[in-house]
Amino acid sequence: MPHSLSVLLIVLTLLLGSLVLSGTAGADGGVPIPAPAGTTWRIIAGYNTGTHSEADGQDPHAIDIVRLPQDQTAFTPVLAPVSGRVAWRDWDGLSITDAAGLDHLLVHVAPLDHIRHGTVVEVGEQVAIVCRAHECTNYGTPHIHYAIHQSRGGGYLGRSVPFTGDYAIEGMNLYWSDEYNLHGGVELTSTNTRNWIAPPVGPTEPPGAGSDGDSGTPDGGEEPVSVPEPDPEPVWVVPADAPVGGWRTVSVYERTSVAGLFANLDSPLLELVVHNPFLDSFHRFDPDDEASAQIAVQSLRPGQALWALVEPQARWLQAPPTGPRTVTIRLAAGVNLVSWQGPDRSVAEALRNVAHFDHAYRYEARTDSWTLYVPGAPDFVNTLDTLRSGDAFHLVVRVGSTWTQLP
């Protein structure tokens, strides 16, 4: 055989082999649990929970999973559920864009050092580890938050999609309905490994389909998935004395992403700045700046607060809280930017159960001034005397802890 023909056959063989590998490593036919083969996992928060909902930044199809037995979840290796390119990476998670252009979001995990924006990974490759309790924003329960999102490019996430059809998880279709905590309690055993091949997909009819296997539609086709209409947006009234544009602190009332909060605030915003008290760093989000895309999917929870830059000369007030509620906030030693979710109350009474409390201060946007509260200080020092429901303020503690607000 001529040498040139031999070389050509070798090249063709390698190309065909790479095509076969890319086909088996994609999402065709489903996705695996993002953890080592043989480990068993339970869904502890399914669709339509308090943290996976239409109100949660278009994230109703996410699942939170823990390893069984649950005390083995922390430090479990996290494996890529698809082959693709890392679109977003932060200290508490990452996303991978697959061949179809969808982003696979994994949160409450610590990415490995070599996993960076743009890194190419293969299904079954370790990309992170599950964080232990009270780390990576897991609020005391080690778990993996897994969701598949339509992608807006550059790490920006669109609406999530259910784990069905080409994205059935471990051969199981997790169909959508408006049932609370849908699929909560389901247990799945991972088959994730390099060159993963999807197992056979389970029953194709969604909940409520006929028991004889028919879809229930006149033409025998697949029954359409019912997606409930979102509740109408609340009507926000801007008071006459609302401050005009510039910097001010804003409160977080519902669990969402940074981009979700930006979209939901009733304001001509320019950017948000997030303070990470555990790293003592600030992260800027501007939807027109691709460099801040990795901040867009950072998770926010009730009780947190951010800095917001509002367009000059624009009257603005953020949405009020739906009512006083009990929230638990994780505090780092030092300065924490938080919000008060209880009823209007004296600052001393509101902060009475903060462990290792040092002092608190608040920026007053209407007067462009600061107010301060230091326990035991004279009245002329303590200019911050009341916390109103929804107030954002800086809380300084000497030792890290958690704080449960008591309405």
Beta content comes to 25-35%
**How many distinct folded domains?**
2
The end-to-end span amounts to 84 Å
How many individual β-strands?
26
Q: What's the helix count?
A: 4
Q: What is the second-level CATH architecture of the largest domain? A: Distorted Sandwich
The overall pLDDT, averaged over residues, is: 80
Catalogue the unreliable spans: 1-26, 210-238
Helix content: under 10%
What is the element string, with H for helices and E for strands? HEEEEEEEEEEEEEEHEEHEEEEEHEEEEE
Alpha-beta classification: mainly beta
Largest sheet: 9 strands, antiparallel
CATH class of the largest domain: Mainly Beta
Shape annotation: elongated
Q: Report Rg.
A: 24 Å
Query: Do you know the CATH topology of the largest domain?
Result: Glucose Permease (Domain IIA)
